[in-house]
Amino acid sequence: MKEPLAFRLRPKNLDEILGQKHLTGENGVIRKCIRNDTFFSSIFFGPPGTGKTTLARVIANELKRPYRQFNAVTGNKKDLDAIFAESKLSGSLILICDEVHRLNKDKQDLLLPHVEDGSILLLGATTANPYHSINPAIRSRCHLFEFKALSDDDIREGLDRALKVPEGLNEEYEIDEDAIQMICDTVNGDIRWALNLLEIASIICKDNHITAEDVKENALHVNHRAFGSEDGHYDLLSALQKSIRGSDPNAALYYLSLLAQSGDVESISRRLLVIAYEDIGLANPQLASRTYAAVQAAEHVGFPEAIIPLGVHIIDLCLSAKSRTAMDAIHEADAIAQSKAMDMPKYLKLTPVGLAKEEQYSYERYDCFHKIQYLPDEIKDLDLLKRFGSNRYEQQLKQIYEELKEYPRTSDLKGLYNR
After folding, report:
1. For the chain, which ranges sit under pLDDT 50?
2. Which of 160, 356, 358, 391 is the most buried (most CB within 10 A)?
3. What residues contact 392, with CB distance under 8 A and at least 6 apart?
4. What is the pTM of this model?
């Protein structure tokens, strides 16, 4: 059975690597390391189909060092033990680890000392963000190299190579410009996907002439970064929130459309609810309840129709006034609460002991509630609401807040009640 086209065309040296010129170009750090016949344990991260594992194999070949491949998902401890034994015999071994972020703790514990002493040179590949997904113990022993999605020119170069080299299609094929552009528009910088599309189009085409229609039959026009990896999905959610925060409904609707392709209405709904409180907040409090109604409607109808209530409401969120007044206060209060343990005033406790009756909190003295000190003594003058927004509602709240400041708060309840 013939190997897939993408496998047959895997680059064998640095000059054949598509894209990643910041790493493999004449002034790229990886090329310079190889020229000096040295390399270090590294994590390669970036979108799928950008050459991470391929470059790891090229590095091993260029350095003329033995290597073994290991998949963090399917590989087991027995496989690792065999690799460690081989590294002792060879003196040093390159371990190419796919899905490196999936290494569980047991495998990491086995691997770490070998990476530490250099008997294993780890080249890990992942589509996940290493700062979020790679164990710090592994990450601190590795250099991090980011791979970028291939440009259209890179994809075109890869397709051209597939049509010309013997290990490619190995026949005389013609391909229309429209077909090439359709592949570029579909694959979003993933050369593996591009070659897969080219290969199947070559099978179904007539007279060795590949047209846009041949590609279209198998090209699912979706942005696979919306759901191709966890990080890609969360990147889109982040872009959606930042677009709403920046009051750009055009961008927000675009990112919603990409997210809708994943069908994950639950994540979108959660993010919109957070946005209503975090980015809109006190500037438009009623919008939170409207957000809840919109996401309930979306979850009820499901995709593809869910994009309608979500899209309508996203426009509302984008064009609403924004406020960080509440969020800033919440974050500051949280930081203070976590920084130091402070005891509350005794009279706030459920059953204060040792306090005279007249010194205890009285549920009957409504006229005194706003004059009592509720904060611990160390931070009794804390003022979290220093920056109110200019919108009308927050200005009303500011006026009330300033009026309350005119009443000094006291912990002397006996004196307060006797006034």
Report:
1. 221-228
2. 391
3. none
4. 0.62
